[in-house]
Structures
1.
Amino acid sequence: GEPELNWQALCQPGQTLVFYMGHQGLARLSSRLIEHGLPRDLPAALIENGTLPGQRTVRAKLATLAAEVAALGPLRGPALLVIGEVAAFAATEPVLRTALARGDAAG
């Protein structure tokens, strides 16, 4: 069944939501968040195998992320689902990953 979540608390403006293994049930989760008030066009990202050489990142609007992820085919590794304005910055991740590999990222 569906987990008992405090949808009203999750859907407050200005928050960043992060779900571990969020690709499982992504379409349903996205729908429920939209039903409870999150904007359809809120940035969202799914990051599979984060920080590893095989990392895949999908950035989209909350309403379309599930379809974008499905187009990739099956996910093979652990994944984080990030929902909120910060997800719009996911496109910069290859630069950070390269810097971390060289050991010169500020941290």
Note: The radius of gyration is 14 Å.
2.
Amino acid sequence: LRAAVNGTRLRVDERVTIGVRPEHLHPTVDPEAPLRGIVAVAERVGEACYAYLEIAGARDGLFVARLDAEPPIRAGAELRLVAPPERVHVFDAADDALERTAGPLT
């Protein structure tokens, strides 16, 4: 997963936390997608579907993506996700956000 942040203050082996808002995730067919998981629950809400994925390393065991309701997403399906680097947040071991290198978000 790529992030538009300045990571120069991090140690090579430092543990970080990655944050992405559910609406900034997008499905992909790329076999090298950085986020892959199995849909545990798919909740359709109007024109959106909240997919709760089992992804290794996800806090609380599930990762949430807000996707278009069409095409339908089913529990048990494998889903691959990407996010624009400027929408990916990185936090150091002290939970401090790393400085962004991209311009302001709109």
Note: The chain has no helices and seven strands.
3.
Amino acid sequence: ALPMFTAMILGLSLTSLNVRSDLPVLIAGLAIALFIEPLIVSNLLGMIDVDEHTRLITVLFAAMPATPLSVAFAHQFGGDVALASKLSTATLIASAVSLPLITLIH
């Protein structure tokens, strides 16, 4: 029931999608979620003795897009549902490029 509720909230909150007004926040969110966070995780793993497969898997998990569940949390706790929806959708779309890129670089 929860995935259906989350999908419904995400769909309803994307009905009035105006990306231009939140473009700086979206760019910052994309950069943090898809590039900076995996870079930090990779550097932290470089400090300890971890085999290459474990490192790649951990970095890829760190580079995963934002969960649509964040939209449900924003709705439940009075957050900005529209912005959470935009960030969730933007990270999902951008991860189609960022995840293969991280895999090739790593």
Note: The mean pLDDT is 83.
4.
Amino acid sequence: EDYLPRNLAAFRGYFDATLASLRVSPAAEEIARELLRITPLNWPALMPLRLFTVGLLPASLRAQYGLGWSGRREVLLRLGQGLSRAILPRLPGRLRRPPWFLLPPRP
């Protein structure tokens, strides 16, 4: 039990210290470059995913990756989040969950 923060303030201190200690390695930069690469063929599908992926990173990690961010992107992220919260609960369950073949095998 000594390894668990005692309260929310202690957790925030732990979280902030852990976040400040993170460093983006060259391997991580290469992986991110491949995952976030936009091409004319994948642009329509990848652009919203890229916006969420980059936008949900802490600013310090975005800076280490060299990923730009702007007020316009922040507004788009917030709009996307609001739209997701409005639409997702109204979708049938089979559309809210991954298809069975993408789920890990059951033990």
Note: The mean pLDDT is 91.
